[in-house]
Specification:
about 550 residues; 21 strands; about 40% helix; disordered N terminus
Length: about 550
């Protein structure tokens, strides 16, 4: 992989200052994969370690929120389902953004926000402005961002942090802030371990967890590419577990206040200018067609009228301990994956897995083969080479297709065209007019259509061993049944079923009323297939 390609991708920055038009930041996953290739070639060793946090105040989720508007909104339903948690799925991109905006606007005491990527586009700027408005009302805002996932400018982050009611911390940050690229290279062993968690908690009453980062492509607002993704709104006892997860990360040694990393202060005049520019951008954005679609979404209206519908059942948060990023990947006591493996091993009838980045490894193939030998149906849905935004991931995944098919696993690869993913199921995606490409980004697993998982965890080595992850594990047959039903409803049109014919792979789908069979990776160029094959020869699977 050319060094300049990685450098070009990794030095992109988000900006607090609005800029004309919508631009999509290159994905973190692509950056870190290119970084891994570069690091493997140069054999660079880690050397710097975490920056010193200096004086840091420990804080926890606020107590005594029962008098808030959001507490009143959930109280009757939570009381009617004692001991159970409520789950409301958000498959539609604009509605998922609307839900976050509505909760930010309704919050009266606290917002705890944890994300891997926060882009400088419409979604990122609009949500940031709503966080500012909450802080203006006196709401305490704690914002925890991954330092490499967001690729931020310290000056812009310090401006956000300068608001008296907002505190911003960066997880596992680059110690050498300038030149930042050099700091990343010299400390690659540590910087390679990222916080992939995603949560949004309002007044300790509502939480949103799932697969979405903050950026246009996750909310159906990007002109070039949009992801089919899934979040879930949570109420009831499980929300405290989300708050506990946030507190654990917020107070961890790897979470460093931005004001101890940055080297410049934000003057009141500088903050006022930046905030005015953000307000001006928000005002202009409100006139867009996309903004109207967000305003018309059901969740915000239902929240105001206190009639949001939920699926009910026992639910718990499963997560990696934040110390995972500082410990050997061989030490699994801090890992989420063993918690999920217990549920895998208990599956008897059907295992339905949706993972956009899927590199099972030999152990994963054996795990799925073992489920299949017990007589259970095993279905895996992932990206095709045409739809993926991570060619290196696909290059390693493709080597496991034959052993998976030989074990009896049903393997589907999603098509890249937005029109094939429209609808209201998990596979829903409704990009704006002109959107040309779609990809899968949801991470959902269902076990015997009784138990389900929605979160940030991919079935690949990076999620399993390197990054931190989180998600909600729930025993709710109504929702666990609905996820595979919605996904599978138009699967023969939305995806290619991979089949093993003799020793050859074939891709089968329906286009209109016709059954179509492909004998090489569909809708891809020869160069893209060659590139994937070349990358597959590199020893980088552990990075993916």
């Amino acid at each position: 992989m050319a060094v300049e390609c990685w450098v070009a991708s990794i030095v992109r920055r988000i900006s607090f200052n609005p800029t004309p038009g919508l631009t999509m930041q290159w994905s973190y996953r692509r950056s870190i994969q290119h970084a891994g290739v570069f690091s493997a070639i140069l054999s660079l060793a880690a050397c710097s370690g975490l920056p010193k946090a200096g004086e840091r105040t420990s804080s926890t989720a606020m107590k005594g929120n029962q008098g808030t508007v959001l507490a009143a909104a959930v109280r009757p339903q939570v009381a009617a389902h004692r001991g159970l948690s409520g789950l409301h799925s958000l498959p539609d991109g604009p509605e998922a953004l609307a839900a976050r905006l509505a909760l930010a606007d309704a919050a009266q005491r606290s917002l705890d926000v944890q994300y891997f990527i926060w882009n400088q586009d419409l979604a990122g700027k609009v949500l940031l402005e709503h966080l500012f408005r909450a802080a203006d009302r006196g709401v305490r805002v704690r914002l925890l961002l991954d330092d490499l996932g967001t690729m931020p400018s310290d000056a812009n982050l310090l401006a956000i942090d300068s608001h008296p009611n907002i505190e911003l911390r960066m997880f596992n940050p680059v110690a050498m802030r300038s030149p930042r690229l050099l700091g990343m290279i010299l400390d690659f062993g540590r910087i390679n371990r990222r916080m992939h968690n995603k949560s949004f908690t309002a007044d300790g009453q509502f939480a949103i967890v799932g697969g979405r980062n903050i950026g246009d492509e996750y909310f159906g607002a990007n002109e070039a590419i949009n992801f089919a993704d899934l979040d879930v709104v949570l109420i009831g006892p499980v929300v405290k577990e989300v708050s506990d997860e946030f507190d654990l990360y917020w107070n961890n040694q790897s979470s460093i206040p931005i004001n101890t990393l940055g080297r410049q202060d934000t003057t009141p005049e500088q903050f006022a200018a930046k905030r005015a520019a953000l307000v001006e951008y928000h005002t202009a954005a409100e006139r867009s067609g996309y903004a109207k679609a967000v305003r018309d979404c059901e969740f915000a209206r239902q929240l105001r009228h206190r009639n949001v519908s939920y699926f009910w059942g026992p639910a718990t948060i499963v997560m990696d301990n934040p110390d995972k990023v500082t410990m050997s990947s061989a030490r699994t006591e801090t890992h989420l994956a063993p918690q999920l493996r217990q549920v895998f091993n208990a599956t008897k009838r059907e295992l339905f897995l949706v993972s956009p980045y899927f590199v099972p490894g030999k152990q994963g193939v054996e795990l799925l083969a073992g489920v299949r030998r017990r007589g259970a149906r095993v279905v895996v849905i992932t990206n095709s080479l045409a739809s993926t935004d991570g060619v290196p991931v696909h290059s390693k995944y493709q080597g496991y297709r034959k052993p998976l098919l030989e074990a009896g696993v049903e393997l589907y690869e999603m098509k890249p065209i937005p029109g094939t993913l429209q609808g209201r199921g998990l596979s829903s995606l409704r990009g704006p007019a002109g959107s040309s490409t779609a990809g899968l980004h949801a991470k959902t697993f269902t076990f015997d259509r009784q138990v389900g998982f929605i979160g940030s965890f991919n079935l690949d080595p990076r999620s399993s061993k390197l990054n931190t992850e989180m998600g909600v594990l729930f025993h709710c047959p109504a929702l666990a049944k609905r996820l595979p039903e919605n996904t599978g409803r138009n699967l023969e049109h939305n995806a290619y079923r991979v089949e093993l014919v003799g020793h050859r792979l074939e891709w089968v789908t329906r286009e209109g009323d016709q059954k179509v069979r492909y004998y090489s990776e569909p809708e891809t160029s020869l160069w893209k297939r060659v590139k994937a094959q070349m990358i597959s020869w590199l020893p980088i699977e552990w990075l993916l």
